[in-house]
Specification:
Pfam families: DAGK_cat (PF00781), YegS_C (PF19279). The chain is an alpha+beta fold. Helix content is about 30%, strand content about 35%. Helix 2 (about 45-55) packs across helix 3 (about 70-85). It is globular.
Length: about 325
């Protein structure tokens, strides 16, 4: 049973709307007599630091860390926790959870957490014990960087869409922000240049001359609700990779139609891998996105595997 909640609040999420929403959430917590503290993030990556600070002060079995924002906020908290426990392996792992009030809440969709903050808060408070979920782990072999993701790691098309969406004026609109990915997608699908890609599994090497969509996912959804792998689950000890080579407009239309009925993985031009370990190599610079957070254009030699962490969800 949780006795204290630490809320890590990204006030910049949802076009800055969380800054106005948090006082209402805080008031509700006080009305319910929930013991809690809040920490406001000040810049991108700050939730990593805050998570480690919280754990250094309190890693008791009665504590829970709550991400208040979008998937990016939860991503940072997960990585902060993982970094802390890498150097404190014998300590109790404090579970984390998610109050989805950002513009990208694919993890909430996958875990059936309400998009109404009041209902989602009640869901959090009704949990009696944590459960271990699978998270993705990656090692960038060219640069030596390492980290974790809760949702997806995308190279190419979806990452370019994230980049364009994040830099659009629509993204920061409180009313139209949720449409930023759709508008960016319409542009990027027409202009994106495919990239030669190699996928290395335990037993085989697969080469694709025109890698278009290259998405490694831990959950069914990406890009704000697109059900890219309906069978993906954070309860299963594997990651799913979907790779589509540059399609014709006819194939794009077919893909969209099949996507709506969750049959797109059966299409011949859609390549689907489900593995615990694999490596993706590209030799041209492209954007990538990790849980909706963009990274600079670069070549990739990245190895993926599964890990786990306790989450305060039903």
């Amino acid at each position: 049973m949780a006795e204290k909640f630490y809320f890590v609040v990204n006030e910049a999420a949802a076009g800055g709307n969380v800054a106005k929403l948090w006082p209402k959430i805080d008031q509700r917590l006080n009305q319910l007599n929930v013991t809690h503290s809040d920490f406001k993030t000040n810049f991108k990556g700050d939730a990593v630091r805050i998570a480690k600070k919280i754990l250094a002060a309190d890693s008791s079995k009665e504590s829970v860390i709550v991400a208040v924002g979008g998937d990016g906020t939860l991503h940072e908290i997960l990585n902060g926790c993982k970094q802390y426990y890498a150097s404190h392996p014998s300590e109790h792992q404090v579970p984390i959870t998610f109050l989805p009030v950002g513009s990208g809440n694919d993890f909430a969709r996958a875990m059936k957490i309400s998009d109404n903050w009041s209902v989602a808060l009640d869901q959090i408070l009704r949990v009696s014990s944590p459960q271990s979920l699978v998270v993705g782990e990656y090692q960038e072999n060219l640069r030596g960087t390492h980290g974790y993701f809760i949702n997806n790691f995308g190279i190419g098309l979806d990452a370019t869409i994230v980049h364009d969406a994040n830099h659009s004026q629509v993204k920061h609109s409180k009313i139209f922000g949720k449409f930023s990915y759709i508008l960016a997608a319409l542009h990027v699908i027409r202009t994106f240049k495919p990239v030669p890609t190699t996928v290395i599994t335990d037993f085989e090497r697969h080469h694709f001359n025109n890698g278009f969509l290259i998405t490694t996912t831990n959950i069914p959804y990406f890009g704000g609700g697109v059900n890219i792998v309906p069978t993906a689950s954070a309860h299963a000890n594997n990651l799913d990779l979907v790779l589509i080579e540059k399609p014709s407009w006819k194939q794009i239309t077919s893909f969209i139609c099949h996507l709506l009925v969750k049959k797109h993985l059966n299409l011949k031009f859609v390549n689907h891998f489900s593995q615990k370990h694999f490596t993706i190599v590209t030799r041209e610079k492209r954007f990538s996105q990790i849980d909706g957070e963009e990274t600079p254009r670069q070549e990739f030699d990245v190895s993926f595997s599964t890990s786990s962490y306790p989450f305060w969800i039903k």
